[in-house]
Amino acid sequence: MEERSMLFEEVARQFERLENTSSRLSMIDILSDLLSEANPAEIRHLIYITQGVLAPPFENVQIGIAEKFAENAIAMATGYSKAQVIAAYRKSGDLGLTAEEFSKKTRLRPMARRSMDVNGVFESTLKIARTSGAGSQDAKIKMLVELLASSSPMEARYILRFALGQLRLGAGDATILEALSKAATGSRESKPRLEAAYNICSDMGKVGEALMSKGIPGIEHMKVELFNPIRPALAERLPTAEEILEKMGGRCAVESKYDGFRVQLHIDRKARRVEMFSRNLERTTDMFPDIAKAAMEEIKADEAILEGEALAYSDATGEFRPFQETIQRKRKHGIAQISLELPLHMFAFDLMYADGKDYLGVAYEQRRKELESIVSGKGLIRFSDRIIATRPGQIDKYFEEVVERGLEGIVAKDMGAEYIAGARKFSWIKLKRSYRGEMSDTVDLVIVGYYAGRGQRAEFGFGGLLAAVYNDKRDMFETITRIGTGFSEKNMQMFNELLRKIRKEHRPARVDSIIEPHFWVEPKYVVTVRADEITKSPMHTCGREDGSAEATGYALRFPRLVSDGVREDKNPEDATTTIEITEMFRLQKKVSVKD
Ligand code: ATP
């Protein structure tokens, strides 16, 4: 029996409801209703559209067509001049709304309106994104005009935002996983099983497709696949060697913690293909041509997935360079030159797959042995330095040595533990130099709102940020601080430009806040912040146990931005979590009591 395909009109209607809700639970209900209506042949595309992407992010398929082409397309599709479209866009500040407005008052005879379905819209948009080469701009505009001319006003709003890469429905991974669970099983309770599958393939469309066609058995035993990045394991914190050893059962490996750029390297030697992925699973292969080349020469396995930290390091002097220098590779130009000036090494610390064997379920010590047997370890790819410790004194001594060498600290590893993809667990525990002071470890915060400038700052229209942590249990962003000082003029201008584009009319559904900033923004950008201390506060929602008026949360004292700009290697869900803050608060009390 031919299954009925889902009309895009229906999708657009539900997207509008999603946009208007300020409750996370109703977001899940709307999404799960929508997902449960899709048939297995379209669920993958529907999920990608909901995420606002054309492929899982690690494939780097750029969706964004330029705004000026979109303006042209709206004008051509509705019989108005480009100037009229631009004037309307200035007023609305949102090209999606402008497309809808012009579609309503179109001067052209509507083309025979054909109902567009989900796969149709997805494939047309993909085609626009993939068209390149000479004359491609005209071809792209023409395709977009066709798409707009045959859509209803409401469809035009969302098609345009999708094509611009500005759909932003506010649903994160956890939200979509819960909605999928509800769509497939009637309850949100299967989310952990879906998450486990997602942690292995990092492809929400793939998880949704397997689930909707085969049910829960379809997502159990998801296999590691080459060139599908695995979501990285993360480390917990503890303040002392004693506590680390106790937690680890009296014996553990202790590795140097390199402050560089996390690299998950996939290699298929026979196909001569190497790809690398960052901590948040973006493809970073182009940043590290030297490591790609070294991988072909220094890795003996035919196929492998390994993980390590890449950083600028001078073999001659044994000197590690700061993270800021390593990250210069993010710029697109002159990589070849930079790799001569600042040669990188990759310090490999884990192995997830080799020659047909999945190592995720294998104990750390065994993974490490295998890693050492498949990599020569003498070239650009080295092994992370480590010791095996059974006494706190050994850990302390190693820690001092490492800090002396200019490294960040240590990561202790449970020798019997599996690789726990996508989660922060005590099988890895970090101890950093900075925990020895007050709260001097930095935190990564999500910008959820901002303030307009006053006085001198008014010309930039920017006066400060409202920032939040991520509560991964609730899948909500909870505010922790306002940052009002320490911005350079350049920084203010940059924030103003970035944030203006992602303003929201009302508090986004996944933001929990008592404070009302001048402008809400979609939680999207992460900044690194240092503060003097974590304090209790009734003004912030971070860590408030209950919703009552007396409940207190945590706040940062004297917060200031550490880096110029935003953390491009972190998604909002990669920000510091509420549990980490609670833990840091506890550690801070301990340290200050002791000192
Ligand atoms: P941080 O900012 O402290 O690096 P993070 O949130 O990026 O924190 P964590 O899970 O807290 O990540 O710490 C682990 C990180 O440390 C890894 O993401 C990796 O990039 C880096 N790292 C450096 N050396 C090692 C090592 N030997 N083993 C594991 N991770 C290491």
Tell me about this structure:
With 595 residues, the protein is α+β, with helices and mostly antiparallel strands. It has 4 domains: 8-52 and 170-220, DNA ligase i, domain 1 (Orthogonal Bundle); 67-164, DNA ligase i, domain 1, CATH 1.10.3260; 234-432, D-amino Acid Aminotransferase, Chain A, domain 1, CATH 3.30.470.30; 443-594, Nucleic acid-binding proteins (OB fold (Dihydrolipoamide Acetyltransferase, E2P)). The chain is built from 21 helices and 22 strands. The strands form 4 sheets. Strands 13, 14, 15, 16, 17, 18, 19 and 22 form an 8-stranded mixed beta sheet that branches. Strands 3, 4, 5, 6, 7, 8 and 9 form a 7-stranded mixed beta sheet that branches. The chain has a 5-stranded mixed beta sheet with strand order 1-12-11-2-10. Strand 14 (464-471) and strand 15 (476-483) form a beta hairpin. Bound molecules: adenosine-5'-triphosphate (ATP). Residues 234-235, 255-258, 262, 279, 309, 349, 384, 411, 430 line the site of adenosine-5'-triphosphate (ATP).
Write the layout of secondary structure elements.
Elements: H1 8-20, H2 24-37, H3 43-51, H4 67-78, H5 82-92, H6 95-104, H7 118-130, H8 136-149, H9 153-164, H10 173-185, H11 191-201, H12 204-214, H13 216-219, E1 234-237, H14 241-247, E2 252-257, E3 261-268, E4 273-277, H15 289-298, E5 303-314, E6 319-320, H16 323-326, H17 335-341, E7 344-354, E8 357-358, H18 364-374, E9 381-383, E10 386-389, H19 392-404, E11 409-413, E12 424-432, E13 443-451, E14 464-471, E15 476-483, H20 489-500, E16 503-504, E17 511-512, E18 519-521, E19 526-530, E20 533-537, E21 553-557, E22 560-561, H21 578-594
Parallel strand pairs: 1-12, 7-9, 15-17
Antiparallel strand pairs: 2-10, 2-11, 3-4, 3-5, 5-6, 5-7, 7-8, 11-12, 13-14, 13-18, 13-19, 14-15, 16-18, 19-22, 20-21
Helix pairs in contact: 1-2, 1-9, 2-10, 3-12, 4-5, 4-6, 4-8, 5-6, 6-9, 7-8, 10-12, 11-12, 14-19
